[in-house]
Design goal:
The structure is a homodimer. Chain A is elongated and about 55 Å long. Chain A has two domains: 122 residues, 3-Layer(aba) Sandwich (Rossmann fold), CATH 3.40.50; 97 residues, Arc Repressor Mutant, subunit A, CATH 1.10.10. The first copy, chain A, is built from eight helices and twelve strands. By secondary structure, the first copy, chain A, is of the alpha/beta class. Chain A has a five-stranded parallel sheet with strand order 2-1-3-4-5, with helices on both faces. Helix content of chain A is 39%, strand content 22%. About 2% of the residues of chain A have low confidence. At the A-B interface, helix 4 of A face helix 1 of B. Chain B binds a DNA duplex through helix 8.
Chain lengths: 226, 226
Amino acid sequence: MKILVVDDEKLLVKGIKFNLENDGYEVDTAYDGEEAVRLVSENKYAVILLDLMLPKIDGLEACRRIREFSNVPVIMLTAKTEDNDKLIGFEYGADDYITKPFNIMELKARIRAILRRSGTAERQDSEHRIVRGGIELDTLERSVTVNGVPVMLTVKEFDLLELFMRNPGRVYSRENLLSIVWGYDSPGDIRTVDVHIRHLREKVEARSAQPEYILTKWGIGYYFKQ
Amino acid sequence: MKILVVDDEKLLVKGIKFNLENDGYEVDTAYDGEEAVRLVSENKYAVILLDLMLPKIDGLEACRRIREFSNVPVIMLTAKTEDNDKLIGFEYGADDYITKPFNIMELKARIRAILRRSGTAERQDSEHRIVRGGIELDTLERSVTVNGVPVMLTVKEFDLLELFMRNPGRVYSRENLLSIVWGYDSPGDIRTVDVHIRHLREKVEARSAQPEYILTKWGIGYYFKQ
DNA sequence: CGTCTACTACCAGAATCTTCATCTCATGCT
DNA sequence: AGCATGAGATGAAGATTCTGGTAGTAGACG
């Protein structure tokens, strides 16, 4: 399951690569349109993430050229300003688009949607309902119940919980969480994570002082009970 | 459940494909009449959306040729100007027609109607009457009653309500709603959705300040009470 | 031309997020 | 065991973002 990430911001590319690889995808990278087209012609990708603004050949043109020989799904990464990017993207053959800045959770959701649509390898984590212990989470409804009781979560709380529940046992540092849930360009304070974890525990745990699900790995970060 | 979309406006095709795939249909595309006929001869489609103006072979001729070997339902996509398209289309074997520009809800409704008629896989959401709580919605009459009292809705209000009632609990972002209800080429402001939601609430809810049916998912969008 | 619908801009209040100070507790050392 | 240290938990306030409402304009339609 290979994904190609194309953007001239190397930092962004590295961040996305890191996160997607952690999710079990294989990730190639390119920094300009020419290289992107070449890579696509030489490899078989499940999805391509393509920035609009690129050196040499821009994203739209690259998309058009790719379409000449491949039907691989393309997700365009667009800047917020340009309202029409969406349309233009579709016109040139893109399958979806996402506006920067985005957070990794959202990007992953789009990738899952694309893979589901293209029928590629229905992975366990492409499900929109996740149940672990007494916690049930539905990403379409963005709803959560604990032992059958509905719980209202805020956006950040929900995104945190979804990430944890998709990867139980895996420990995330605060830096990881900031970059995944808050976005790659979050300048935020590291302690902010603590506060949201606390709020999440208050809503999800029976006794937030002795958490049962969202546990602390001392000196490292947080994780969801295996 | 495969659908073939044929139009030379790639933008339009992509938009339709995107939306129909999100609804769980499989979508093939073609950009001229020749390719369309070839695809139909090689695949089994539940419905074909066929533009009138096409390169190589126009829509009518393509429709006629398809009819020589297949009874697959055809919905013609016609430009607004030509009033007689309808008749001509039927004459050449089309089953329905829809004038551009249309919005996705309307297109989906036509597709559902065709599928219902052709007896293909009677899906739950192909019903034309939906009742949830005190709200009854009839897509054929485009009428709505709340606790038995008829309510007059505008086009946008009705489309919003229909979408919500077909997918209770599912949360839609404003972007989702814009692209689904407003259409593939909507340049619209995101706040417009809020205003229509408010109007809808004023007509459907007992107290629109404490909505019972059309609820807000803070930071995400709107959804219909489960 | 008048009426109805749709769209946009703007504002105030509410919900959420962030920051910071303080408290508590796990850890490692003596 | 007792203590120092630093990491995590907690509480509260300020900043920010989001929503719902008002209002006014544009556009469609008869």
